C-alpha cells in the first residue's frame, strides 16, 4: 500500500501559481508529474486529494493528454467495482529532472516575475 498523497503538497507560498513561468504540457501536467514521481501507481481519487483545485473533467483531460503523449500509463483492472491506476512511464520520469530545475529557477526568481507582472499591469 502506498502512502497517501499530501492534500497540501501544492500549497507553497514561495511558488504561487502566478509565478510559474515554465509549463510542461498543459497547465496541470507538472502537478500530476509531482503526484506520480514517487513511482507509486495512483488512482484518480488519490490524485484528486492534492489536486482539489482541478475539476474532475479537467483532470481527466489532463490524464488522457499525458497518456497520449507517452508520459503516463493507464492500467485498468477488471474488478468490481472497476479500478484504474496511473503511473509515469520512463518518458514521463525523464521530465522530473527538468521540472526540478524549472521549479528551483521559479523559486529563485518568483518575486521578480510577480513584480514584473504587477509593473506591466500598472
UniProtKB/TrEMBL annotation:
The keyword Transcription regulation applies. The lineage of its organism: Bacteria, Bacillati, Actinomycetota, Actinomycetes, Kitasatosporales. Residues 15-114 form the HTH hxlR-type domain. The keyword Transcription regulation applies. Keywords: DNA-binding, Transcription, Transcription regulation. This is Helix-turn-helix domain-containing protein. It holds the Pfam family HxlR.
